[in-house]
Amino acid sequence: MENKQSFGAYIQKRRKELGMTQKEFAEQLFVTDSAVSKWERGLAYPDITLLQSICAVLQISEKELLSSAEDVEGRRAAQLARQYLRLLRNYRLIQLCLYGLTALGCLIGNLAGQHTLDWFWIVVTAEAMAASLTLLPTVTPPRWRGIAVLGGFTGSLLLLLAVCCLYTGGDWFFVAMAWILFGAGLVCGPYVLRRVPLPSILSGRKASLYLAGETVLILLALGINFLYCGVGSWFFTTAAAILFGVWLVFGPVFVRQLPLQGRRGLVYVAAGTGFLLLLLLASCLESGGTWFRSAALWSVFGIALVCLPLVIGQIPWPAPLRRHKALLYLGILSVWLVVCLAADGWGLWFPLPSLPVALLCLVLPWLWLGGMRYLPIGRWFRAAACFLATGLWTYLAPWALDRILMASGSLTDHPYSLAIEANLFCWTDPALVTGNVLVLIYLSFALAALLCLGIGLWRRAKRRQ
Q1: Is the pTM value of this prediction over 0.85?
Q2: In whole angstroms, what is the distance from residue 157 CA to residue 163 CA?
Q3: Residue 159 CB: number of other CB atoms within 10 A?
């Protein structure tokens, strides 16, 4: 309250505007007229328990009473709120009248024209769909208004399609329903998940819920389509392809929202491999082939070739094996390669010539692993040893490959010889060009080995100074 004088003057002004005497005002407040006189003369304040009663009698707000002035903005806002509520009530009434009269007219027309109710239900469900957009928002709390409109529109649309399907004698309703639910979820799913209260365990995984729900809906739509068509066996292949594609693109989103600290890459690769094998199996069964085993083995080998370092890094190996992850990687790949060759060509080109050829090719990565990781010498000396070993392997591998092919029955007119015919000063004779190239390759490995050896000796001498 600003002061007693202004407070009393404001009470007196409002009392006179309402045409009340001090005695009438006091009787409504159950106080004496002398108390009212003291208030109006600025001699005393009313008891705080009388404030609400004074406001009610004088038809003012508590803010106006305490500030001793009219709250023009507050009165204007209250007036606008009352006008809005009145307009909203009239709008609802007009909507109800329009929908009701339209439904009544169609009811009478349908009964009078066809002596039954058939297309009338199409009109009613169409009106329900329209009302979900125009009338439903006016009767729903603001917090749930968006969800109510989406749910009401989708439900009334499905009801309209069901009525149309029955009216036309069709059997396409479930196909249409499945694709409408998928499309509605695809567009409105993020909004709904943001508005709906979820348990704490799911509130931080809305992206995963959205993707999982859409995947289920599209599989449901495809399944219903498959049953509706009744031709072919494409569903399982298509479903497997969708699962594999969704996981390949959006799998990191699922994995990131799982409580898998340090194991997310492992889970992503394992699940992706499983979906790929499922796709291969479904494709093999659909085509009636027998190639699944071969395709599965080589697919796993290719995935391991790329992703096995990530997987090995996230597996809790025993302490003695933690320092030998490269050895584990190469060992697993080597064994799996032999298994693939054996399963794919047993009795045809396994064990000869594929097994010795594979072992010959594996010699080079094993040489590099053993040299760079386990030789008890400096890094530059290891590199020199690896370059020398690579040059020696390059020199001997063609001769060994030639002998393997000859042992398996593949004869050649010109067996490979370790004696190389070369003349670096002559590049016009075709018989010497191959030998010249090989000599240059061997010299390159030798020079690389000498360079690494020289750097190693220089660094060792520098450390000893």
Answers
A1: no
A2: 10
A3: 16
